[in-house]
Queue: 2 jobs
Job 1
Amino acid sequence: MNQYDIIIIGAGPGGLTAGIYAGRQGTKNLIIDKDLAGGLGREVPEMENYPGFDNISGLELIDKIKAQAIKNCELHEMEEVLEIIKTDKEWRFEVKTNKDTYQSKSIILATGSSHRHLDVKGEEEFKGKGVSYCATCDGFFFAGRDIVMIGGGNSALQEALYLKNLGANVTVVHRRNEFRAQKHLQNQIKEANINTILNATVEEIKGDMLVESIILKDTETSELREIPTNGVFISAGYIPHTKLAKQLGVSLDESGHIITDKNQKTNTDFVYAVGDVCVGLKQWVVACGEGAIAATSAFTDMQN
């Protein structure tokens, strides 16, 4: 059976950075991801706040971090971890995937999150037929067409700007009376003359073969109105992936995120967590910092 000092589950920015730091400490390490390295980070159209780059896409940055990571540790993409079993042996954890079984002294959970759905009528029906959760994946098909972006955070406004630059006619819909996104993104939305509708929720997505309109409900008056559109892009938050954390008895907060201390330790010995699955700010630079801390903590704890 393959044995490792540290197994990192998830190859997003935090997981890959953990792999870099773990490998440079001279330990034997493995990163496993059920998809391609990068996760949701591959969908980010552009970033202007990652140190060292005035502007870079998520895919480009992931490729750079991945290239550095595989110089320092082993990486298995397209391999899903199904179960982690704690043992009372030197190799404290047995990691079972859909391809193999591994043993490890420490675990770093970098399992990330997935797109939160609106759970409204028509959403599932029109997925891939006008409903999308990824502007960089599907935006090209909407050049010159009307689209609605649902959400009010950084990701929603970043993707709205990206779609506008592709030539789409964009309207941003948010359920609150103001956006949660950073001020500079809100300013860019105004400068780009992107239409916004606040205090509104989506009640239904309508169409025939493809999306044709959405029904919005005013959160203050409960008034309904129908807006014609060719596409609905949804950026309404994320759901943390904590199935494996629960198997290991890791504590979660009320929102379902993993609780860690300043050293990225969970309440379960030799289990650490980083990135979007944790309580805290959802930013690449934070996930990378947490990855460095977790790998260093795991190495230090193994020496004691």
Job 2
Amino acid sequence: MVSKVASPADTGTVNRVLRILSAFAARDRWPLNELARELDLPRGSVHRLLKLCRPLGFVDQDAEGLYTPGIELYRVAGKLSADMPINRLAGPLLQGLRDATDETAMLVLLSRQDLRIFMSEIAWPSHPLRYTAPLNQLQPLTWGAAGRSILAFMRPEEIEEAIGQAAPSPLNSRPLDVPELRKTLEKIRLQGYATSYAERAPDMHGIAVPFFDQDGQVRGNLMLTVPHFRYDEKDQERHLGLLREASNELMRRLGWK
């Protein structure tokens, strides 16, 4: 196999710094050696760039010597996340879903470059027992309604690449059952939504409806999660109707008809 020759844009200082900062979205504490391996960069180069980032507040180091996000990175990320247009437009819709169901409502977005998803906005219900998920942390597409409702509508080559990653279950690390996944994706394409149980969190049911941009490309989903002890199968059609209505309204607000 012929290796791709990296362009200057792929190997320059700015590119490397941005890759280092992006790594904190996946994990908030990094030993230097593991971070260098993750980025496939020389240890010395990573150490030098981390030292450049520390005085600006984008990187910090804890008492154990592990590298962590700095306060400035948190400030910038929080400001941009709060101001993300899709979050602002989806926020009232999520609150409406939460109020109509008293369950957790989430906006899940696709990171197409990474072939992963992340929870971008959440409306929490009043119940103390509810689904909890970290915001803006990349997660695999191949598990749960959150990922599979999006994966089913991606391009065939993207689906194959996501399957090829063979990410284990985020709940219990069980291996991916590829034949089962393919059957599930076909079912999702036919019915237009996805359901799951105990794939990302124990004893949690999920139902998700995807939404699409003006070019017909899937961009994310709106989702409800319900703990098993509160779950009633008779509520599914009502929840599905609410999600479809909210998804259509979000696409309308975004101009994605």
